[in-house]
Amino acid sequence: MNVQIIVDSGTDLPKAYYNELSIEMVPLTVYLDEKDYLDQVDIESKTVYDAMRDGAAPKTAQPSPESFHEVFKKYADKGKTIIYFGLSSELSGTYQSATIAREQILEDYPDADIYTIDTKAASMGYGLIAYHAAKLAHEGASVQDILDLANHYVSHMEHIFTVDDLEYLQRGGRVSRTQAFVGSLLKIKPLLHVEEGKLVPLEKIRGAKKVLRRMVDLAKERGEDFNQQTLAITHGDDEENAQKLAELLRDELQPKDIIIYPIGSAIGAHAGPGTIALFFLSKTE
């Protein structure tokens, strides 16, 4: 394989895929209890969720350009084509760090073949893009074929998600303090999605039981050809509801496959425990 796929830990990809598809991962940093941890390396997401339930407010930081430079250089030295897929630049400065590192590498390796792609996605929305690109790379596909597939996924990736407590979104500036307070009183569950890389409120659902049902309905409205799609569900330490959502999807949409995995520490530090997210491809116009 002469094409090396590189990602950051905002993909929330299952760890097995990194080895299986030879994907290199650059971790974000999570700050918790006055300590620094590398996401997906030396902290488990459940540790973050348990701390948040106890009142902790973890913070995150993007990888430095130097972190990306080190990884890019390793593969530039081998003459490999490098494709980095990045967490949405609207949600993190991680993609910017990678872009700076690319420019530095090209100063020393003018002939290096390096692509940096802003997926405009997060969690397994981002992860699915990188996963399918890595599968093609592993099979020996051309760089152009990999980029074409990736750009199609970037243009059509849907995120539908809900959070258990609006307070976590309020901390991150996604909803106002008043909205969080009123929403908690009324037991309102927000549904959100992603537009051009930004988190955007979609609907408000009263009652947790109705949320999963509505997520399936939205998938029906927005997606197609589910029997040819691999869907993804990520969750903030809520395997039970993730499995309930998967069961509804299998019964009604018969997808090719469903990947279920916990949301990582970096994304989870902002979304909070109890988050449920669904990712699929939208209809082709």
UniProtKB/TrEMBL annotation:
Top-level taxonomic group: Bacteria
Transmembrane domains' residue ranges: 259-281
One Pfam family hit: DegV
Keyword tags: Lipid-binding, Membrane, Transmembrane, Transmembrane helix
Record keyword Transmembrane present: yes
SUPFAM superfamilies given in the database record: DAK1/DegV-like
PROSITE patterns tied to this protein: DEGV
NCBIfam families, per database record: DegV
The protein's name: DegV family protein
The organism of origin for this protein: Halalkalibacillus sediminis
Organism placement in taxonomy: Bacteria, Bacillati, Bacillota, Bacilli, Bacillales
